[in-house]
Amino acid sequence: MKYIFSILIIFSLEIFSQDKITLFVEKEITPEGDFDSTINNYELDYSKIKNWAFRNDYDDEIKLLPRNYIDSFQKKTDINVFFIHPTTLYSSTNWNSDTSSFRKDRIIKLSLQNQASCFSGICNIYAPNYRQMHIYSYIDTVNGYKAYDLAYNDILQAFKYFLNYLNNDNYFILAGHSQGTNHAMRLINEYIHYNTYISDKLLLSYLIGMDVKRSFSNISPCNFEDDLFCFLSWRTFAENNYPDNWDYGNHIFSINPISWDINEDESSFKDHMGILLPNKLILFKNTLSVFNKDGLLFLKKPKNLLLNLYPSKNYHPGDFNLYWENIRENLKIRLSNLN
Prior knowledge:
By secondary structure, the protein is α/β, with parallel strands linked by helices. It contains seven helices and eleven strands. The radius of gyration is 19 Å and the shape is globular.
């Protein structure tokens, strides 16, 4: 019991971190001055391994998997995943991260283990480092958009390298969370959309953690559990807690990552396959039920006393963790329909 309780505290700190970090940013660690275009005014060379957070041809994908996870899936596909990690820059006085932070950023490593690991061992993972924008860019949007533009250009250059030298003309999956989803959406609309050959290779888009309109692009939402050539999206909040700073409504797409329905029916607790904790253990099977409403994913009160000791209104940091194995098993179903 003591062991499980300690794990839960760690998990709870991760879940609560978004609200705490936002408050901390506003008071103490906002960037100094306006965006300076002379800083980071060069392009990154993505032929260099240091500019990748993970490359399947260099890094060990098995190390990303949970420690207590046993996979019955034996067939490795040739499908590649271009994964864009979420915001990890909270404490810098600059509007964008610099390259010196790439290998030292513990939270980037955590995002690979908690999020990109859904695809590990099934697909090949390629996750670029990029000069991400500071979290405060979501508040000061005048300077923030300039920082976002710089970060996106890194993503674009990495994606071009991925297509030319890593993807080998295979089908690929685009996946992101939070800021990563913002970049993925822009990549779809400003680059992929204009090249039919590339867009025909885009098998799935996991646009997680942001308000994604149903009609944001020419790519259709995934309506069923085995759909391909479509996009998936959800954002997790406690039941009946509507966000103040995000768009919501029927024009926003949300799919249930347990039942894979787009209606408002609650998923069954028995279908929940467990929560991936930051210490790389999957625990608490059959404890969660969620449902879609107004373009949001609402989490009902967990079926576990320990989990209920640490409630939150916004489960944004856990959008992958909460349903890790459900996401992975569903991916196998979708890929089984690929001829």
